[in-house]
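user:
I keep going back and forth on a fold encoding question. Separate attempts, laid side by side, tell us more than any discussion would. Would you put together a sequence-and-structure record for a protein of your own picking? Write it directly below this note and I will take it from there.

assistant:
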Amino acid sequence: MTTAMGAALRRIQLGNALSAFGNGFTVPYLYVYVAKVRDLGASTAGVVLAMLAVAALVVLPLTGRAIDRRGPLPVAVVGTVSAAVGALGLGLSATEPLVVASAIALGAGIAVIQPALATMIVWCSTTLTRSRAFATQFFLNNLGLGVGGLVGGLLVDESHPESFVRLFAIEAAMFLVLGAAVASVRLPRSPKVEDTVPTEERAKGAWRAMFADRRMVGLCVLGFVLFFACYGQFESGLAAYATEVTRIAPSSLGIALAANTAAIVAAQFVVLKLVERRRRSRVMALVGMVWTVAVAWIAAGLSGLVHGAQVVATALLISTYALFGIGESMLSPTVAPLVADLAPASLIGQYNSAFALVKQLALALGPAVGALMVGHGMYVSYIVMLVVCALGISALSLWLGRMLRPGQDNPHRAVAALPAPRAEVPGPVETTGSVPAAV
């Protein structure tokens, strides 16, 4: 990686970490803030949370086209401004229409930022350094969210609404810091995107071209199962299972989420070193096995069966969250770089936005399905469904691996396997004056 590319990437990563830090201030407290602090009720709080997801689903299909036409930098800046306005609006709004409008601006802004930043990271990395770049982004995101949540917990006071205004103001400021960091970046042209000059023709037929790419469609199916079974269950199905079946104290859920973050922070670069040079499809398949065989979901199942041993049950559930963290640290240097390596140079924004849309759909459906099943007492079916999803991740990964080219599945091995260039050595010159033959 050249010095210019490295400096640009570091600036992007720093801004992203600070925005995650600001986001961590408000994520755990948004429901309580709307429902109780602003006294708008549980229904309004539910609408606000839903609007975050709906806004993302609306803007993401358009985001990829904008990135490929205009470049990721202006799109990312627009996203940070929208997110900052939404965050500050939430802190200042006291009526339902204003709170909902602010949530829409925040959700749309965050949704736009994600694929724009992913595209910028692609531009500032090479095929061989991309896994480390995305792993670093994931590490800093989780570290920022974790630290932000802890600091926010020290500042917030439910009896003083102004303390929540302070949290949302800090979040808005951090989004603006991200925007300033992004705006100051001079994007290089990496080998992957050497034809990145925007054109009007570029986005025509983008969705059709992407759906014709069997590899990308397969990765999107795999991504949906991954996000549905993992992130989609953290704060819904698993939380409901923990409190309804395991009967652990609600405060233990915070410890479980902290264990997840700690596992990611502690293991990310160790895991990266182990998986960076291995086939991506095999690494993703191993994630499914970690979440199945290594007692990830099975631990959650056992925790509901251990009656009269609350400490053991709680420890088993917390270990589930920690094991998920290990699996996530294996995915971060694998999935996002693979999306980039599958994309044609002129459609990188489209591919990143499409995958972000798949993730958002999974995150919208996952909590609904999980909470519904546990809420209706379908505990065994819930665990079985998630074990099947984990096994499906392994099967889909191996299936996808058979379609990938060597350079897509394992860039390091593909580069190492390239033959060294052979110098042409002139052969003996014939006396007839013919052109020398190359050996």
